[in-house]
Specification:
With about 150 residues, the chain is an alpha+beta fold. The protein contains five helices and nine strands; from the N terminus they run αββββββααβαββα. A hairpin with a 5-residue loop joins strand 2 and strand 3.
Length: about 150
């Protein structure tokens, strides 16, 4: 095993603003639910060190801007920024700083996050088919989602 391979196994390498991570076996996974990213490959630098990932869902023509995601969800762009900040929506895979460009999202990452969140909400006794989630059980035993019921996402 080379020193680089030991280094790769000792640290968690993330990409896409935390939407993806590389496991010790070199498999790129979604941050939510740990499912493997289809057809993901390591992105290497000139020295052969892994610096990120390449995947079809991250191709420029496969990404969608924040305005589109907000509109599709019936939100204002600032609502999307708020729920991302509160970790109730996956972050954009690409963020631009200081140039007024909207953040870019991967539809595949959003789909994976939505499924993960729905499973967690359902496990807590909440119906995630509508926003805000509706209480199905007598209460949220872990209280993990109590604040979410009070937040209308606006």
């Amino acid at each position: 095993m080379t020193a680089m391979a030991e280094h790769d196994r000792s640290e968690r390498l993330e990409a896409g603003n935390g939407n993806y991570w590389r496991d010790p076996d070199g498999v790129w996974r979604y941050a939510w639910g740990d499912g493997p990213v289809p057809r993901a490959r390591d992105r290497l630098d000139a020295d052969g060190e892994v610096v990120g990932l390449d995947a079809p869902e991250l191709a420029p023509d496969a990404l969608v801007d924040a305005h589109t995601i907000a509109r599709e969800r019936g939100w204002q762009p600032q609502t999307l920024r708020m729920v991302v900040h509160r970790r109730r929506h996956c972050p954009p895979v690409v963020s631009f700083t200081g140039n007024g460009q909207p953040a870019l999202y991967s539809r595949a990452a959003i789909k994976k996050f939505d499924a993960w969140l729905a499973a967690k909400l359902n496990a807590a006794g909440l119906d995630a088919s509508r926003w805000p989630p509706r209480l199905l059980a007598a209460r949220d035993r872990s209280r993990e989602f109590a604040d979410m019921l009070n937040d209308q996402g606006h």
